Structure formats: structure tokens, C-alpha cells
């Protein structure tokens, strides 16, 4: 069973998995994700990062960082941006990405974030399928890749409806 552990963004296990996801980006897009990222952005209370372990081995990761209006026209006060969602190739297709995503959403909501946003690309159809199946809706592009034709951005409200 996958064990999700809060982990520093700059922990060796995190860094190894981040390097692997960057390699995937190089293979699919011809370069790494150039979005500016600082490890401190993923520390509580304005961020969170986790690593998923299977039998003691780090096999998945993901995090969120607080984003607020004024930083980007499409970003709202109370947003949390998901970054570095990744599952190693040998461990895909087992629901681990869904587990990571659910925990990121849960912790962002617990930290008072109202919406989760993310950016992915057309050369990651499995990521797009995951996000849309989990209720993410397309939104206008934001961030470093806002003008890139292969960029796709998605958002999901974290506020629960009261009926």
C-alpha cells in the first residue's frame, strides 16, 4: 500500500523524483519545466509537498504552493497551484496519482485554499485524463507557459457546497 508522507521539497527523495519528472519533460517537450519554483514555497502554511512510498521506496510525489490574485491575471486570491505531480513509470496505473492528488486537494482545503489550479501540456494526455476525471475544468492559461500552444490549464473548486 502506498504511504503518503509530508516531505520537504528539497529532501533527497523529492529531488530524485523531481529530476525524473524533469527528464519526462525533456523527452516529451525537448526541455525542462522552466516555471520558477523555490523550495520554501512548498512549506507550511503556504505550501505542501509529499512523497509516496511503497515498501520504503519513493515512487510518487506532488505538491502545492499558495497563489493569490495580483501575481497573474488568471490567479485568484486563495488559489493553490499543483506542481511536480509524478509517479515513476514502473508504478503507474495503480491509482497512486489519484491518491497523491486527493491528498494535495485535502491539505490545500485544510490550509484554507479555495481552488486548485495547475498547468500541464498536450503531450501528457494521461495527466489531462486524470485531472478531467477528477473534476478539473479548463481555465485560461496562466504562468510561464500562458502563450504556449501545447499548454493546458485546469482548475477545481475546493469549497464544498451546502445544500
TrEMBL record:
One protein family per Pfam: Acetyltransf_1
GO molecular function term, any single one: acyltransferase activity, transferring groups other than amino-acyl groups
PROSITE patterns for the chain: GNAT
Gene3D superfamilies listed in its UniProt record: 3.40.630.30
Superkingdom of origin: Bacteria
Keywords, comma-separated and alphabetical: Acyltransferase, Transferase
Ranges for domain N-acetyltransferase: 2-159
InterPro entries: Acyl_CoA_acyltransferase, Bact_Acetyltransf, GNAT_dom
Matches recorded under PANTHER family: AMINOALKYLPHOSPHONATE N-ACETYLTRANSFERASE-RELATED, AMINOALKYLPHOSPHONATE N-ACETYLTRANSFERASE-RELATED-RELATED
Protein name in the entry: N-acetyltransferase
